[in-house]
Amino acid sequence: MQIYEGRPAAAGNRMEKEMRVYELLDELGISYVRADHEAVMTIEACREVDEALQIEICKNLFLCNRQKTAYYLLVMPGGKNLQTKELSPQIPSSRLSFASGEDMEKYLNVTPGSATIMGLIFDPENKVQLLIDEEVLEEEYFSCHPCINTSSIKLRTEDVLGKFLQAVHHDYIKVRLSR
Questions:
Q1: What's the domain range around 121?
Q2: Separation CA 75–CA 40 (nearest Å)
Q3: Are 61 and 81 in contact (CB under 8 A)?
Q4: In sequence order, what are the beta bridge partners of 131?
Q5: Mean pLDDT by 10 residues, the chain (179 residues)
Q6: Going by C-beta distance under 8 Å and a sequence separation of 6 or more, which residues neighbour residue 124?
Q7: Which of 35, 63, 148, 174 has a Cα-to-Cα distance from 91 of 20 to 30 A?
Q8: Calpha distance 45→55 (Å, rounded)
Q9: Closest of 78, 77, 2 to residue 33, by C-alpha
Q10: Mind giving me the DSSP string for 48-95?
Q11: Does the reported pTM lie above 0.85?
Q12: What is the pLDDT of residue 38?
């Protein structure tokens, strides 16, 4: 697997939403490296990408409350498993479950297997609340998909939390999930 500095040289067969991520990162002066790969649908499938980027790719879960009136994007280390009873009192919202693929597309413009913090570009009305596990916040680097699961990017966590979230007008709630 080859690592590239920045965006692809040409848009070619890249999806518009992926190119929009690169455009925004470039506009914000955020440097990143990129790996292109076969589609990965699970954290387990990301192991080779992790090795190439020398980082653990974050697990991104798209959740909602039972009434489907509140949506959450949870970013956590890939090695952790979600216990909703542990998360619910921290946000606070009861009866969390996975949101539908249709809602993921509607609010973040991504499909199942491609959930990413970069999808917040497509949530100008702030319908999705970002939740980030404290362990992710402690890392120097952050890795995610650019709205498509055939590429992964690695960038500085401080750039994501500062420049990127400010540009997309989102903030986050820090949560603590056990291993």
A1: 3-175
A2: 17
A3: no
A4: 74, 173
A5: 85 89 97 90 77 87 94 93 90 90 96 94 96 96 92 95 97 93
A6: 169
A7: 148
A8: 14
A9: 2
A10: HHHHHHTSPPPEEEEEE-TTS--EEEEEE-TT----HHHHGGGTT-SS
A11: yes
A12: 86
* Distance between CA atoms of residues 157 and 169, nearest Å: 17
Q: Could you say which DSSP state residue 46 is in?
A: G
State both tokens at 45: 């499938």
Bridge partner list, 76: 59
Residue 64 buriedness (CB in 10 A; 0-12 / 13-18 / 19+): buried
Number of domains in the chain: 1
Question: Tokens 């909602």 — which residue?
Answer: 64
Structure confidence at residue 125 (pLDDT)? 95
174 bridge partner residues? 132
* Per-residue pLDDT, 93: 87
Strands across the sheet containing 97-98: 97-98, 59-64, 71-76, 128-133, 172-175
CATH (domain of 66): 3.90.960.10
The one-character DSSP state at 3 is E
Specify the DSSP element, H or E, that contains 6: none
Give CA–CA dist 48/38, Å, rounded. Answer: 11
* pLDDT at residue number 103: 97
Tokens coding 123: 């949530």
CB-facing half-sphere around the CA of 120: CA atoms within 13 A: 26
